[in-house]
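BACKBONE STRUCTURE TOKENS:
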Amino acid sequence: MLTATNDFVIKFANVNGSGSASANELFAKAILRMGVPVSPRNIFPSNIQGLPTWYEVRVSEAGYLGRRGGVDLMVAMNPQTWQWDVAEIESGGYLFYDSTKPMPPSAFREDIAVIGMPLTMLAVKHYDDPRQRQLLKNVLYLGGLSHLLGIEPAVVEQLLGEQYQGKPQLAQPNIDAFRLGLQWAAEHLEAIGLQVRRADKVGDRIFVDGNTAAGLGCVYGGATVCAWYPITPSTSVAEAFEKYARKFRTTPEGQKKYAIVQAEDEIASIGMVVGAGWNGARAFTATSGPGVSLMTEFIGLAHFAEIPATIINVQRGGPSTGMPTRTQQADVLACAWASHGDTKHVLLFPEDPHEAFEFAATALDLADRLQTVVFLMLDLDIGMNQRLCRPFAWDAGREYDRGKVLSHDELEAGRPFGRYRDVDGDGIPFRTYPGTHPQRGAFFTRGTTKNVDAGYSERGPDYLENVHRLIRKFVTARGLVPQPVPTPANRPTRIGVLYYGSTSPAMLEAGERFTAEGIAIDLLRIRAYPFPESVRDFVLAHDQCFLVEQNRDAQLRTLLVQEYGLDPALIQPVLHYDGTPITARFIVRAIREFLTRTLGQEERVA
């Protein structure tokens, strides 16, 4: 059977609505408290209850945070998915199940170890209330797993006390159920080959999800208006903003210094954001792919009228309703070119909650600086799953970048002003906030073609001036957005890999595997569109590049080829889009197969 210490994958197969989520999350946190890095992922259905749900925890003392692939220990609590769950276990792995009802030998595999614990029998024996039986059965198996894996009981009990702090009527029954499961397992089961031992590998990192981080980043970034409409998986961004704004943006007298509006739909929410941005407020909305589809006309208005607006898009599987609770990077083109006509928008690609916090504030700065729409491109894997990351940092002396805004005194002194006049050659005009000056400044804006002074015009030359200046602004943005992060090989190589967003932890692990195999590959993490010229230079410096994405159509590769006129053959797509997070195994296999097929073994490792 498999043996490993602080290096394995455990997966819980439950029924949605059974109350398993809190117990499973507590399991991951207990290992984290023991100083061992974990990377949990919640795979849940889009209905409220009744359908299968899974919670996968990668335990990795080495610190790998990407999804590994494969399962070493399956906690099979859902008869509906039994066959799939058993099939997913690695050879030599372990199956833990509720053995209250006997199972036929055909339900198991000969190459795995089967561990039964009569959870239902124990729950029925000790608890009378049916709901309590169901909820505490999850805590019973937590006790059993603690014995099997060597998780310290005191750590689990402390977490249970914290979870139900101030509610002793709930805390003690949960602690008692945990001890009951622990005692039964100690009397009837032996520890298995997978073990957890104390380590000191977590350091000062924090454990948080990307949506919470982005909501807090908007508070620190100066947002005062959030208009949104609920949609999975972005709703918790607005909820986090409200939570932290209530804490940090409320006066001692109880006056709120912010506005949060749950609009009647996505169209209304983006309209409010655009209106607030025109009026000088920092405003944002949080949504997902279907919401972006509805917002596109207002997005085009903000782009052409040049009004700051920030959109946090937590991507999920499409098209249409698609897979609302599965992750993808499938909205790249939809956001980059949102709206009709020739439009290009700024996209930011954070890799984890730390950058979700940082880039949320950056997006608000860029929207003001560039007077345009900026998308923060999260996805469900970053947004809704807790991840270890660097602590958030904020410079107390940092000033918000409001961009080119003329003051009352500047206007009063007679400074020349044309709302859409390119004074500096960077494509960005000056603006004024409404009400800054009674006679001078811009009280109105236009979504139609206009001249440089915002006067109505449908003349061809005026239209060309508008769209060409917007391209100059887009080129300016290349130097303002977060720059790419290179990870060079330890020796010269002709092979490069580009990646972005939530593919980062899997790609970095894949890079280490290639290095261990003696294969030299340069890595470059893209953090924004428009692409800085260093991205083009990276491609041209290599004979063969790969671009790792979680969508079907190689959307970022399409943008890169189109933006710089690159030969598509230079960039081989590595595409993963079944709704689960990409794994290092998948990346290594895809790249290795291509290199072996096209370059041959000798050149592959050169």
About this structure: Residues 133 and 454 are 68 Å apart (CA to CA). Residues 404-482 form one domain.
